[in-house]
Design a protein that fits this description.
By secondary structure, the chain is an alpha/beta fold. The chain is 37% helix and 21% strand. It has a 5-stranded mixed beta sheet with strand order 5-4-3-7-6. Helix 1 runs antiparallel to helix 2. The relative contact order is 0.17. The mean pLDDT is 87.
């Protein structure tokens, strides 16, 4: 399965890779070299911590490069009156009348604690392409679902503030 990424996602990932290669990597290598110079490696916590940090950085670089290489690039554009990627949507839940506002983003930016929901989540999938005033059925699994009504769609763009998740 390929991750669906926008050109903005790829740009942010490339910026992070460049930062990790040009800034973080040299610092990590220097830390390892300094810790190694302290002597006995068998009881040198600083050495193991520096090696772990260096390896985590290299792992993150490989992960981001693989994501970019295997990504399916999707458009952020949508019709003026339809829900699309990077749009903010206010919905009312039919079962209890509560109102929530979500921003539809790609999976690499999804963060439910900040109301950033993925375009691949059940709610995100159900909302994409729908219009203000539509009642949408969200299927969570084969036996569970709920309905939401789209109250408002704010056409927003990728302002660069939504961070790429780290794993």
């Amino acid at each position: 399965m390929y991750d669906e990424l926008t050109p903005g996602d790829i740009r942010k990932m490339e910026e992070e890779i460049e930062h990790r290669k040009l800034v973080v990597r040299p610092k990590a290598l220097e830390d390892v070299k300094e810790a190694r110079a302290q002597g006995d490696l068998s009881e040198n916590f600083e050495y193991y911590a520096a090696k772990k940090f260096k390896n985590q950085n290299e792992s993150r670089i490989r992960y981001l490069e693989r994501m970019i290489r295997t990504a399916k690039v999707i458009s952020e554009d949508s019709a003026e009156d339809e829900v699309g990627i990077n749009n903010t949507v206010t919905v009312e839940f039919a079962d209890d009348g509560s109102v929530e506002t979500y921003k539809i983003v790609t999976t690499v930016r999804g963060n439910s604690l900040e109301n950033l929901i993925s375009n691949e989540s059940p709610l995100g999938k159900a909302l994409l392409g729908k219009k203000e005033g539509d009642t949408v059925s969200v299927q969570v699994n084969a036996s569970t679902g709920y309905e939401v009504k789209i109250i408002r769609i704010d056409k927003s763009t990728d302002d660069g503030n939504d961070k790429i998740r780290s794993f």
